């Protein structure tokens, strides 16, 4: 009998996913996943609906969040799992992050308008539908309005990614603060996709792990949609070396990134149920 699989990294309409929290539970059930974690960007707005939708179902719903931070001039995403999503301190922290996102969005829209693109903050907020509004929502509007773009990545490559004319940096918190907030909310902190389209990845990854271990990180994602076998093996070795737990997930966003599927990522992702059990037990020390 095939062992049950899980997905500890998915997104809903509460941030930049295309499915509602309830629809994600429906999909996880259809795929026979044993557990799934909602890890929206810098918000827990969808967690209540996610947990409610899982009531009486076979899939276990895990409350989570993905927090954007900065270390060594790079973005480092910290996933919190098994958090108390009603924690006042955590919600105040996330609200401050969302405010900084809004300030960044204003700058991006201004730059786009200066280049002749017809787009407003109001229509971006309308298409987002949730508390977190970001570049993917801006890109979606431009994709719909202008024939020069064929897919979302075209918008990023021409306008929105770092170094392009409409890019604007945003103030990011530190991994230390994110990890502290996750622990204070009773959750475990996971470094998401440690290898992510950057040069000199292996050397930098090890350097970052030394810092994150000192900062209190609990686990790293060793299984991820874009990882090959060599990368996964390297990260498993790092987890052992730094005495960290292991996690994994698809980073599923829905229709916007149709090549990624919940539970299986690009087709070969297999995150074992044992990861859920280990991380759940680890979270107990923060309660």
What does this structure look like?
The chain has an 8-stranded mixed beta sheet with strand order 7-6-5-4-3-2-1-8. The protein has helices at 21-30, 47-53, 88-114, 121-128, 135-145, 152-160, 175-184, 201-215, 229-241, 273-283, and strands spanning 5-10, 35-38, 60-71, 74-81, 188-191, 219-224, 245-249, 271-272. The two termini are 35 Å apart. Helix 1 (21-30) runs parallel beside helix 2 and helix 4 crosses helix 5 (135-145). The chain folds into 2 domains: 5-93 and 172-286, Metal-dependent hydrolases (TIM Barrel), CATH 3.20.20; 94-160, DNA polymerase, domain 1 (Orthogonal Bundle), CATH 1.10.150. The chain is α/β, with parallel strands linked by helices. It contains 10 helices and 8 strands. The mean pLDDT is 92.
Blueprint of the fold:
Layout: E1 5-10, H1 21-30, E2 35-38, H2 47-53, E3 60-71, E4 74-81, H3 88-114, H4 121-128, H5 135-145, H6 152-160, H7 175-184, E5 188-191, H8 201-215, E6 219-224, H9 229-241, E7 245-249, E8 271-272, H10 273-283
Parallel strand pairs: 1-2, 2-3, 5-6, 6-7
Antiparallel strand pairs: 1-8, 3-4, 4-5
């Amino acid at each position: 009998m095939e062992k049950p699989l899980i997905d500890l990294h998915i997104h809903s309409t509460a941030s930049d996913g295309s499915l509602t929290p309830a629809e994600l539970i429906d999909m996880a059930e259809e795929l026979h996943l044993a557990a799934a974690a909602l890890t929206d960007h810098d918000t827990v707005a969808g967690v209540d609906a996610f947990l409610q939708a899982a009531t009486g179902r076979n899939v276990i719903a895990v409350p989570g969040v993905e927090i954007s931070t900065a270390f060594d001039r790079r973005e480092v995403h910290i996933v919190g799992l098994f958090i108390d999503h009603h924690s006042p301190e955590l919600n105040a922290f996330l609200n401050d992050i969302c405010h900084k996102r809004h300030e960044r969005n204003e700058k991006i829209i201004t730059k786009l308008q200066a280049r002749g693109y017809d787009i407003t903050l109001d229509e971006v907020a309308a298409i987002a539908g949730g508390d977190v509004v970001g570049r993917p929502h801006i890109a979606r509007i431009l994709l719909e309005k202008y024939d020069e773009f064929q897919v979302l990545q075209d918008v990023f490559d021409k306008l929105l990614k770092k170094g392009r004319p409409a890019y604007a940096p945003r103030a990011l918190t530190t991994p230390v603060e994110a990890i502290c907030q996750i622990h204070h909310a009773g959750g475990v902190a996971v470094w998401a996709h440690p290898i992510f389209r950057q040069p000199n990845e292996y050397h930098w990854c090890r350097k970052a792990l030394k810092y994150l271990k000192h900062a209190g990180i609990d686990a790293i994602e060793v299984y991820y949609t874009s990882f090959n076998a060599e990368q996964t093996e390297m990260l498993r070795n790092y987890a052992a070396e730094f005495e960290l737990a292991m996690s994994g997930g698809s980073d599923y966003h829905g229709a916007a990134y149709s090549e990624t599927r919940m539970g299986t990522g690009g087709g070969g992702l297999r995150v074992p149920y044992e990861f859920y059990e280990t991380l759940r037990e680890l979270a107990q020390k923060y309660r």
